Structures are given as C-alpha cells and as structure tokens.
C-alpha cells in the first residue's frame, strides 16, 4: 500500500471515529509569514512552501482554486512581495497593470495562504 493510501485511510478513520483532523498549519499562520510577522513554530517550513508557491500554481488542482482570479494568480509573486513589504491590498491593486481591486488582492492572498497551509498539512 502506498504512503498516500495510508494517509487517506488515516483521514477516513479519523472521520468515522469522530476525531478532529490533524491540522498543524493554518492559513492565518501563513498569512502572518506573508505579512512578515513571526508565526511561531513552523515558520521555516511555511517559508519554504511559500517559495515553492509559483511552481505549485501550475498544478491543475491549484489553478482551479484561482478560478476567476487567473490574472491575479499570474502576478502572485509581485502581490506577495508587496504584501510582505506592508503594502495594503488596495495599494497593491492600484499598482497592478490591469483593473484590479483590493478585495481581489485580499482574496488571492487568502487563497494562496490556504493552499500553502493545505500542502504543508498534507505533507506532515
């Protein structure tokens, strides 16, 4: 049985037994790292996965999560860079080369944070 199969069985057993899912990383922790704050434990693992985010965006499963926000996803490295420097989502949107909104930028940051947290939790 493959490792992925064992992991999936573990999730199913936890569900059927009513046990909480093991979630070591949260989107809020990832957002703290994106903003340049200390997330506490696991910060280096989060940083490593954030650095892999541009490669992850190419995966079909990840691209579907950005449905409706493809243009934002294309400039995600720039959004993350500016967000890390403390620039507000509205100001980031104003600097983008297309009609962007602060809400769109904030949504993409939230999606990216969820993706990083999900991937880290899947690996741990």
Describe the structure.
The protein has one domain (25-123). It is built from eight helices and no strands. By secondary structure, the protein is an all-alpha fold.
List keywords for this structure.
globular, 8 helices, mainly alpha, 70% helix, 0% strand, 124 residues
Task: Provide the fold topology.
Layout: H1 3-17, H2 27-35, H3 43-56, H4 60-65, H5 70-74, H6 76-84, H7 89-95, H8 102-123
Helix pairs in contact: 2-3, 2-8, 3-8, 7-8
Shape: globular
Number of domains: 1
Mean pLDDT: 82
Distance between the termini: 18 Å
Instruction: Please count the helical segments.
Output: 8
Write the element-wise H/E pattern from the N-terminal end onward.
Answer: HHHHHHHH
Which regions have little confidence, pLDDT < 50, spanning 5+ residues? none
Q: Short description, anyone?
A:
By secondary structure, the chain is an all-alpha fold.
